[in-house]
Design goal:
The chain is an alpha/beta fold. It has helices spanning 8-16, 39-57, 73-82, 98-101, 116-130, 152-157, 162-176, 191-200, 209-212, 221-229, 252-258, 284-292, 316-332, and strands spanning 21-24, 62-65, 87-90, 108-113, 137-140, 146-147, 182-185, 204-206, 235-239, 245-249, 301-302. It has 2 domains: 8-211 and 312-331, Aldolase class I (TIM Barrel); 222-307, no CATH class.
Length: 339
Amino acid sequence: MGVRVSSSRLVSAVSKEGALGVIATVGLSEELEDMTPAYVTRAEIGLRQAIRETKSNTPNPLGVNVMCALTNYDSLVQVSAAEGASAIISGAGLPLKLPGLVSDPHVKLLPIVSSARAAGIICRTWQKRFSRRPDAIVVEGPLAGGHLGFSHEEIENLEERGLERIVTEVIAVAREYGNIPVVAAGGVYDGNDIARFLRLGAAGVQMATRFVCTHECDASDAYKQAFINCRKEDIVVIHSPVGMPARVIKNDFVERYLRGEKVNFGCPYHCLITCEPAVAGYCIAQALVASYRGQMDKGYVMCGANAWRCDRIVSVHELIEELVEGTVAALRSEPPGHN
């Protein structure tokens, strides 16, 4: 949901409904009136503006997602805490130093993991170095959108219900550290999915794809329409300049990249630690900025595996109401004696 897809308008609407809206920090600097400051400074300004605008629209908690792979990771985390974010969610790498960057104990810290092993490493490291444990652990499975914490081979070989297995394994690790809440993410589409993970012992779910197809989503109408128009076979996993697999909706830009064409955007940001501009086929930051603006010939749309199921644009209120009602109905239909 990075590059302004989940910014103040969407986050305000989600938090108003009692869920936790999450600001994605990537690309917030790209619509500032003054583009003269250096990239790192612009990123801080953009994040401050997004948090302040969200807080002016709702008194409810808001979260901020900061990718470990960002070169300005430290400053974005510190700005998030200073501006009063309720929670900082961090993945795309192991956020081993996150507690050392946040002195306020009231800010909830949630690492994103794709395995029980990663969860164990983070819990041990945080406890040893900072005497702190995660406030919750987000488990992102192989059906998630955007960058994935799996190899291409793992994604191909993982069975469709792989997230259930990983969530169960992470819950076991979480219990060793005092029953840390576990949040399931990646491919969660409707109330039946939510109920299934609650039954497994998850404390909640994280969703992204469904919220792109809302009126309040900050992305362009063309971006949202890409979800509405896509077919199941249009959703592919490509290798991103970040150095990780990424799930996207195939379009002409993606086809050109898959054919081996190099789109020479240059590197105006140096925003990712793992990016190698000299060998990258394109600048992912510029590609995602373009798609956010609706310039689909210059970029592509990231999505979850279930994006093809989206068939209409609704309000955040309608969507959350549908999800809550679906979850309640699924839980009520639980067979007698089910634990």
